[in-house]
Prior knowledge:
The complex is a heterotrimer of chains A (331), B (302) and C (313).
Chain A: E1 6-19, E2 22-35, E3 39-43, H1 50-57, E4 66-74, E5 77-78, H2 84-90, E6 95-98, H3 112-124, H4 128-141, H5 147-150, H6 160-172, E7 178-182, H7 190-207, E8 210-215, H8 218-224, E9 227-232, E10 235-241, H9 242-247, H10 252-259, H11 303-307, E11 313-316, E12 319-321
Parallel strand pairs in A: 3-8, 3-9, 6-7, 7-8
Antiparallel strand pairs in A: 1-2, 1-4, 4-5, 9-10, 10-12, 11-12
Chain B: H1 28-35, H2 37-54, H3 91-126, H4 128-142, H5 146-155, H6 161-188, H7 191-198, H8 203-239, H9 251-258, H10 267-293, H11 296-299
Chain C: H1 2-29, H2 34-39, H3 45-55, H4 61-73, H5 87-122, H6 127-141, H7 144-158, H8 174-208, H9 211-218, H10 223-245, H11 247-260, H12 266-275, H13 279-307
Amino acid sequence: xxxxxxxLEIDNLQTHFRTMDGVNRAVDGVSFSVRSGETLAVVGxxxxxxxxxxxxxxxxxPEPPGKIAGSIRFGGRDLLKLSDREMRQIRGNEISMxxxxxxxxxxxxxxVGRQIGETLRLHxxxxxxxxxxxxxxxxxxxxxxxxxxxxxxxxxxxxxGMRQRVMIAxxxxxxxxxxxxxxxxxxxxxxxxxxxxxxxxxxxxxxxAAIVLITHDLGVVAEVAERVVVMYAGKKVEEAPVGELFRRxxxxxxxxxxxxxPRLGSSLTGETSRLAEIPGLVPSLKQKIPGCVFASxxxxxxxxxxxxxxGLELKAPAHxxxxxxxxxEAA
Amino acid sequence: xxxxxxPPGTAVAPPMPDILPNVKPKRGFTGFLRRHxxxxxxxxxxxxxxxxxxxxxxxxxRDPTALAPALRTREPSAQxxxxxxxxxxxxxxxxxxxxxxxxxxxxxxxxxASVIGLFIGLTSGFNRIADSIVMRIMDGMMSIPSILLAIAxxxxxxxxxxxxxxxxxxxxxxxxxxxxxxxxxxxxEQPYVEAAVASGTRTPAIIFKHxxxxxxxxxxxxxxxxxxxxxxxxxxxxxxxxxxxxIIPSWGNIMAEGRALWQVKPYIVFFxxxxxxxxxxxxxxxxxxxxxxxxxxxxxxx
Amino acid sequence: xxxxxxxxxxxxxPVMAVVALFVFSLLYLAPGDPAAVIAGDQATPEDVERxxxxxxxxxxxxxxxxxxxxxxxRGDLGISIFTNLPVSTMIAQRVEPTLxxxxxxxxxxxxxxxPLGVVAAWKQGTLVDRAVMGFAVLGFSVPVFVVGYLLAYxxxxxxxxxxxxxxxxxxxxxxxxxxxxxxxxIALGGVYIALIARITRATMLExxxxxxxxxxxxxxxxxxxxxxxxxxxxAAVPIVTVVGIGMALLIGGAVVTESVFxxxxxxxxxVDAILRRDYPVIQGVVLLFSFVYVLVNLLIDLLYTxxxxxxxx
Lengths: 331, 302, 313
């Protein structure tokens, strides 16, 4: 049993947006927790609400048009109840974030050193000179060659992989307790992806931060995560330790997702090597769905699924899923 | 609808509350006006001014040029609603008739500059040789502040409403040409237009099928702004004595005549100023509303 | 870098040539006989001939254009028909008031409009935003001389805070100089403020939706630093460009503002020249203003590197 203390506890998170044609219920009742030093992956197709969940934790959702409800407890405080000022002291300091697009996530008109140093000056009151010195150290830590020269350069002078390293340096500069990484490797070349993942794993052990990894890449999940939350249409549909989830997925959606990953060497076994597809489309989040959100695409769906939304149930030890027909195993 | 029977022991997800009120926007014409209130306000104001201009003789006015030396510079009263000027003419009648000049200049310049600018823009968008020559000229003309250009033109011609229209039109053409040319050049790179060119569609067909429909929206918006600018330029030209001849009552002329007395008889300047400002405001509001209503990507160009 | 600057300066030569050609050709393109128009209705045939000769209309177009350009290159803008003084001398006497007015208006407009635009973008959709945008539409709609008279009536005639009209040279003290220019600068600045505030808001809205602003917020940066450090620096290039283009409004408006406030500058010179149909003076002023306008915009182009490190020449 995991006895590390709980660091982040999200309870019944709802993030909705007002749009031109109705309210978009992007995240609708998601709960999960993260323990100190743990790596949790949140997976799902694009548009399932995983990025919005990540942004909601740091309250980076503009309100209006958005609105966040529920509770996000971090270190004994509900982040949703903090003032803007208190929230700013947490951002970049205790919780920091890495974004998907390293090409556009760095400010093009400020030097790399200034952007890393800004966090240190904000949260640790460092002088400009001291902050630049530390920025050079951070650049060295994330494996950028010639950090003394790079620190004075602008983002457009760096490659995509280097920029993501700079983003990581910014995120880790203040030794955060929690790092939220939103698709950190998606926009990078495959070889660079592996390097960045290795770097994150190394830094995690040395810094000791917990990581919430948002991704749609199950290969990445298998490699770094300890526990996995599967999201679909703004809801959590399944949660389990990584090995358990890959071996015995309970929710038909998760089974579909795992079925759609090409397996190395599967063509040699003579089986059909086609990627399994989940037929149908993600439902619009602008209408309330009375039953199971996955019913419209689920091979096992019945009239009962369409009428009654399944709740999350313990299906096996430490393994929950929201499906009426997922088999339960004895604890 | 009958309630579905839920077997005991089934986990049911709790219903999620609404945290934002679900307000659906209105559709149709009233919805459009509600989303773009500036078009409604500006439109009403503009129609009002048009009515004033058209029906000026029937709105309790008298001859705007009739002199009455004995009744000079009277304060606003029951007899002279807006007072009388230094020649005893009724300012109310002059202001109402003045709407005709302003609106005529505004609309004429907007239409002429749009049509000529459209032609020049299309030509230089499709012909590289014409483009390099025409755009050089346009660059030069755009380097002359438009009011100065109009002043220079007016200094060489006799004052008349037609000459004012021509002078302001010439000063406004370069901007329209640039806009149209920009739209043409960006549309030409669109895959569907490139495909049409590659498949041998003739240029006029491409212009009418692909270019014109996409040019019309930004051009309409630009035309409203030109209309507003032209009315201001006309007033400025008349005000400094380079515009409409003094016999014709125009808002700029009335103000120019009231200039000498503005410290003691400010109402002579005040009333035409209010009418001019309101009319230009109305046109600008319509323009802003149209700009917001059309494709935001094209709106950025304006 | 230097090669680029030289190239840009050379590129303005054809533009200036077109301006010169255009201003010069107006005399020939004008319908009717410009000499007769300029001489006025009471002129004798001898007067008209004298004016025709002094404008050079009696000689071939190209010869005359060549002479004219050559003279301008030497700083000779011709002789005024009315005063018989060199146009360049007349202009030189009138430069200071106009330059003062334009500079003060420029400083005032930029320092008011940019913060207004930034705040409007930050508070997008709120009452503050609507107020700023409403003010901008008004700025575009109320002509400069209307604002001028309104200000003069309220703050000079009624409240007696500022002098009604006139101009005091800079050499007679900064305060009197400034006192006379406050109202004209506000009147002239109206349209310019509206223009700059609008582009600032539009550009800021676009910049504020960029990913790097989200990064800055995720770092815990405060609102002021996000707006004025992270966003405004990225918005600088379009804003500065519009400040340059808007100089045309400033120059055009100065002509009118100077008549309202009786400032003896180039604008007054132009208006007087119109009333006397003194075409060489008008020609000279138009050329000078256009030249300044082109030069300012060239300068702004070269300043882009200061604002955006991605632009390299």
